[in-house]
Amino acid sequence: MPPFRTPAVPSPTRPLHLAADIGGPPHYDARHYTALARLAERGTLDFVTLGDSFARPGPDALAVLARVAPATERIGLVPTVTTTHTEPFHVSSAVATLDWVSRGRAGWSPEVSTTEAEAALFGRRPAAPAADLWHEAREVADVAAKLWDSWEDGAEIRDELTGRFIDRDKLHHVDFEGRTFSVRGPAIVPRPPQGHPVTVIDATAPEPRAAAVRHADVALVRAEDPAAARELREELRDRARAHGRDPERLRVLVSYPVELHTTADAVGLAGLIGDWYEQGAAEGFLLRPADAERDLALVVDGTVPVLQHRGLLRRFYPGATLREHLGLARPVNQYAQAGSAS
Questions:
Q1: Which DSSP helix (H) or strand (E) runs through 110?
Q2: What is the mean pLDDT of residues 222-248?
């Protein structure tokens, strides 16, 4: 019989994490997304997400949030980034750029493209099974981290007198060989302010769950009740530990649909969130509004104050980066660490 293990529950002294999706029908005016992000920021939410895929028309989520970044100050910005039919080198550069323009508030949510119709948009290769595509996504996440680390901190010299721009000893080739791509590196963008932008993965299905336990900083789960959510959280933590990761560095959030019409429904949501959190279901919630403009306003003006009054949600941002919001340390550069060990 395996030894009894007491489930690790979120510390009640640590504020819960709250985030929201700002997607929905596509808008081509950036002011729509900027207004929603600033509204979420007023509610001290950790981050907002913006979905994307090749299957529907609409603006590119990563580009939209790069436009939103200068108009916000603290809110984290997490676009969906499809890793199928795209170049890993370009993906890592784009996400690193978002981290720079947001001054350390970027994340990314890897996703795959499974249909023949989407594959035909590119004409480079046919559609593949989800298991193969998520294996590729894991490799993209791996090589992205290597590319972000390929510039050590302080690699830029910018010495006009000597004409030296970069300390070449602090640049590294990644020399990565995957199943479907290879990348030599180094990156063309210096190491992001956060070291690694935050990786957020919806771990609902088995294939992305395998990616989440290896690479996610934030794993999203969907559950009907707190007991089911707690079970999923423990599974993710156990599997992360089995892969040599510290499970305390994995944040598990419940991805929860909301449709609010009155402040009373918003107050009720606060009760549900607080109850689930105190039962150890998750470290927090990603709210998926039915109507982003209506529901997010009710969350900020109705749900958030109740959670703050209960001492569960912070009243201000204690730091400036998304990693600081989530209580996650800045990763050590794997190449600098290897160099110092030798």
A1: strand 107-111
A2: 97
